[in-house]
UniProtKB/TrEMBL annotation:
An example Gene Ontology biological process: N-acetylglucosamine catabolic process
UniProt KW Metal-binding keyword: yes
Organism: Donghicola eburneus
Record-linked SUPFAM superfamilies: Composite domain of metallo-dependent hydrolases (SSF51338), Metallo-dependent hydrolases (SSF51556)
Protein name: Amidohydrolase-related domain-containing protein
Length: 369
């Protein structure tokens, strides 16, 4: 199959007059090829969303099973995210173990697009929508458990508050392949920089549930913006971060490919649901917001095509905005085969119209939308 008639974003640049040939689930060739005419728009790599709590009416926390992961994978693929990192927020240890087993089982059953697991908690201090009763420091036993899980999963990302995790723990985790991210924290600038020196490489949903940027106390936000070793995830829905800051954040991290977009999606993604349950608490959907009954934001009602659109509308160049939803998050999790269109890469593709709305999606060369 050859797809043509659209500009092609290869993960770095936009190309005119390029076609993409697919065979056996891979990109066979790119160049001046003619085939199925897409009628304009942009053909880009499938989105890579590395913070996905739920979708298709299901939440990983509520039912850590292969079936939940199948529902999430299918829902997000239709929204353009052909690769996702399912996210388990703070939960008892046995739920984490169930989630690890669910990823393994789902892969064995042929569920596509599951790149690993993101554990957001319980080693956090700012609860947000998390259960505060379950928050706790990390122990040596936890480190051994997470290292084992990383070997099983291939990719394990853990969000921690650095004041609850020692530098030795961070270093040990990184040495066994765990991606350590900073978030939900009261830690100051110096502590976050020290955690980065120990091996932490990511900041989870920049600005939210962390110490903010002040001129005499730069906080975790300041560390994220000034430390080139740290990549930062951004929920670009205009609610978690004001639209007026989006371009400013991009400029602070420009040139080092360290800013990426996440949906922080919940059960409602890909559905018309108006509410759902998270850890026995009601979450309501209204006006593009997801909140607990007390008004606390609880994830986001967002998909990555909308996030890309919001970045472009804020003044970020189109190529940079697309990279933040494709190549950059793939690189953050060490998957240089994802988020780009090049010879031999997976045939995971999204066709966007000129307004950046998803028109068609292919995963492994098979059309899913």
């Amino acid at each position: 199959m050859i797809l043509s008639g659209a500009r092609v974003f290869d993960g770095v640049k936009l190309h005119d007059g390029m076609g993409v040939a697919l065979e056996e689930g891979r990109v066979l060739a790119t160049g001046p090829l003619e085939g199925d005419d897409l009628g304009g728009g942009i053909l880009c790599p499938g989105f890579v969303d590395i913070q996905v709590n739920g979708g298709g009416g299901a939440m990983l926390n509520e039912a850590p099973t292969a079936q939940t992961l199948r529902l999430m994978s299918e829902a997000h693929a239709k929204l353009g995210a052909t690769s996702i990192l399912p996210t388990l927020i703070t939960a008892p240890l046995e739920v984490f173990q169930d989630a690890v087993n669910a990823v393994v089982e789902a892969r064995q059953e042929g569920v596509q697009g599951l790149v690993g697991l993101h554990l957001e908690g319980p080693h956090l201090t700012r609860a947000g929508a998390h259960d505060p009763e379950l928050l706790r420091p990390m122990t040596d036993v936890d480190v051994k458990l997470y290292c084992h899980a990383a070997r099983v999963l291939g990719c394990l990302k853990i969000t921690v508050a650095p004041e609850l995790v020692s530098d030795n723990h961070i270093n040990s985790l990184v040495q066994c392949g765990v991606i350590v991210s900073l978030g939900h924290t009261e830690a100051d600038y110096d502590r976050c920089r020290a955690a980065s020196q120990a091996g932490a490489s990511v900041v989870t949903h920049l600005f939210n549930a962390m110490t903010g940027l002040k001129h005499r106390a730069p906080g975790c936000v300041g560390a994220a913006l000034t430390d080139p070793r740290l990549s930062a995830g951004l929920i670009a829905d205009g609610m978690h971060v004001h639209e007026g800051l989006l371009a400013t954040v991009w400029r602070a991290k420009a040139g080092v490919d360290r800013l990426f977009l996440v949906s922080d999606a919940m059960a409602v993604a890909g559905t018309e649901m108006t509410e759902f349950t998270l850890n026995n608490r009601r979450v309501m959907r209204s006006g593009g917001r997801l909140t607990l009954e007390d008004g606390t934001l609880a994830g986001a009602d967002l998909d990555l095509s909308t996030a890309v659109k919001n970045m472009v509308n804020a003044g970020v160049p189109l190529e940079e905005s697309l990279a933040m939803a494709t190549r950059v998050p793939a690189d953050v999790i060490g998957r240089d085969d994802l988020g780009r269109i090049e010879l031999g890469s997976p045939a995971d593709l999204v066709h966007l119209d000129d307004d950046l709305n998803v028109q068609a999606v292919w995963r492994g060369g098979q059309r899913v939308l």
